[in-house]
Design brief:
Length: about 325
């Protein structure tokens, strides 16, 4: 009986809240994204943080839009200061949401593109562009409408739309959510719709979280965790680093092999803090007393192969 009443309450909340439409492109909204790539041999580790910031109204062809700025400076900006001299923001497109239809205009262009229509019914066809930079129109069919529980700033449900056609396959396997849709950014994938190297860390609107991939983290911590988790998935356990955690000195053991190559120490943003050649050693000792406490990555490049291990300085 208790389960029955819980189910009724959940359905009531869903249908009650689902009547509210959540527009895309609201001013003072940021999408923070983290990426980790294990690059080709010799190139090492690549990580970065991207941010899409919706800030400032503009009038184009007598219609009101919100400007969208992009930054890949590895900085989380919660001040929405797109004119900052400390962050390299680029104006990339503008967006407007009218009658549940989402339109974009690429910077320095004048023709808008329909990217979403959240007013469709199941079975309806949508002629649209996949993202703000697309050149050709595609066709998608709305196959079903579901719900998505958003925990911030208070628990509520939003409609989630699934399509066949251009917005189908893995690019849209988790659907597009009202007010949280991301496909119109282009190549970006997310925890909401995962894939590739890029993962959504959080969405903030007017300093309030709308989405976080980790309920107990702030945005930057989430991005660091994303990098760490991807490293754990891609590490090759052929080198032994100890002690771990360490205070000043680490030892790197190459097992029984005499290794010739390059050892690098990287921080979690991918910045190199040490680079040392190894000339047919079975093990080496490295003094890291000058680096700050935190998580670091040991990278070994030898014979065209890359190996990694994660270490923590106390």
């Amino acid at each position: 009986m208790k389960y029955f009443y819980s189910l009724i309450l959940t359905l009531f909340l869903f249908y009650g809240n689902s009547q509210t439409y959540y527009p895309s492109g609201t001013d003072s909204t940021t999408y923070s994204v983290g990426c980790f790539i294990l690059t080709t041999p010799g190139s090492g580790l690549s990580t970065w943080i991207e941010q899409y910031t919706f800030r400032g109204d503009t009038i184009i062809n007598r219609k009101s839009y919100v400007k969208v700025y992009y930054s890949d400076d590895n900085i989380i900006d919660t001040n929405y200061d797109v004119n900052s001299t400390l962050i390299n923001y680029s104006y990339i497109f503008a967006v407007r949401d009218s009658a549940k239809k989402v339109f974009t205009i690429k910077a320095n262009q004048s023709s808008e593109k329909l990217v979403y229509d959240f007013g469709l019914s199941v079975g309806d066809t949508m002629n649209h562009y996949l993202d703000y930079s697309s050149f050709s129109i595609g066709i998608s069919v709305l196959s079903r409408i579901d719900s998505f529980l958003v925990n911030y700033p208070a628990p509520h449900f939003r409609k989630k739309y699934f399509y066949s056609g251009q917005l189908s396959s893995s690019f849209n396997q988790f659907g597009e959510i009202e007010g949280m849709a991301t496909a119109f950014f282009g190549r970006m994938d997310s925890e909401i719709r995962s894939g590739g190297c890029v993962r959504m860390a959080c969405i903030q609107q007017k300093d309030l979280y709308i989405y976080k991939s980790c309920d107990t983290c702030d945005c930057y911590s989430i991005l660091v965790d994303i990098i760490r988790s991807n490293l754990d998935e891609k590490s090759i356990g052929e080198i032994k680093v100890y002690p771990n955690p360490f205070s000043d000195i680490i030892n790197i053991d190459f097992s029984t092999n005499q290794i010739a190559g390059i050892v690098k120490i990287l921080d979690v943003s991918g910045r190199e803090v040490l680079n040392r050649k190894v000339n047919h050693n079975k093990s080496i000792e490295i003094n890291l007393s000058e680096v700050q406490s935190g998580v670091y990555i040991v990278s070994l490049e030898t014979n065209g192969e890359m190996r990694f291990a994660k270490i923590v300085k106390e």
